[in-house]
Write a structure and sequence with these properties.
globular, OB fold (Dihydrolipoamide Acetyltransferase, E2P), 147 residues, mainly beta, single chain, five-stranded mixed beta barrel
C-alpha cells in the first residue's frame, strides 16, 4: 500500500456529489514549499492535490472552505495527460481515508469555534476528538502518560 499525507490549505470550497448512491466530497489542497535556489534567491513551489473523500458522513463539508488548513491522508493516484500546449503534464489525486481540520482559515487554531476542528474523520471509525493541551507538565497524571 502506498500512503500519501498532505498538510495544506484548501484552494476552493468543497463540493458534495452523490455517485451511485454514495456521497463524495471533492476538494483541492495546496502545499507551498519555500526554499532558496543555488544563487540564494528565495523561491516557492506549490503542489496541488485533488482529493476525493468517499463517505456517507458529510458533516465535515460545511467546514471545508477555501483557505481552511487540513491534514488529509489516503491513497495517491497520478494521471498523465497532454496539456493545451501539447506538453506532458500530470495531476496528483488522492482518495482520502482520513481528514482533520487543523485550524481556522489563517491556519491558527481557535479556542471558541463551534466545530470540533480537532476531530478526525475517517471512513473506518467515528470522529475522535483530539486531547486538549496541558499548560504545565505537573498537571499531567502519571496514568495519562503514553509511555
Amino acid at each position: 500500500m502506498i500512503k500519501l499525507q498532505v498538510i495544506g490549505n484548501l484552494g476552493r470550497d468543497c463540493t458534495v456529489k452523490q455517485v451511485n448512491g454514495t456521497n463524495v466530497i471533492n476538494f483541492n489542497v495546496a502545499h507551498t514549499e519555500r526554499y532558496k535556489d543555488a544563487q540564494g534567491n528565495q523561491k516557492e513551489r506549490t503542489t496541488w492535490v485533488e482529493c476525493a473523500y468517499w463517505s456517507d458522513r458529510t458533516a465535515i463539508s460545511p467546514y471545508l472552505l477555501k483557505g481552511q488548513m487540513v491534514y488529509a491522508e489516503g491513497s495517491p493516484e497520478v494521471d498523465a495527460y497532454m496539456n493545451k500546449e501539447n506538453q506532458a503534464a500530470a495531476t496528483l489525486r488522492m482518495r482520502v481515508l482520513n481528514i482533520q481540520l487543523l485550524g481556522n482559515k489563517s491556519g491558527n487554531a481557535t479556542e471558541n469555534q463551534n466545530v470540533n476542528t480537532g476531530g478526525s474523520y475517517n471512513n473506518n471509525a467515528a470522529p475522535t476528538p483530539v486531547a486538549s493541551t496541558v499548560s504545565s507538565p505537573s498537571a499531567v497524571a502519571a496514568d495519562d502518560l503514553p509511555f
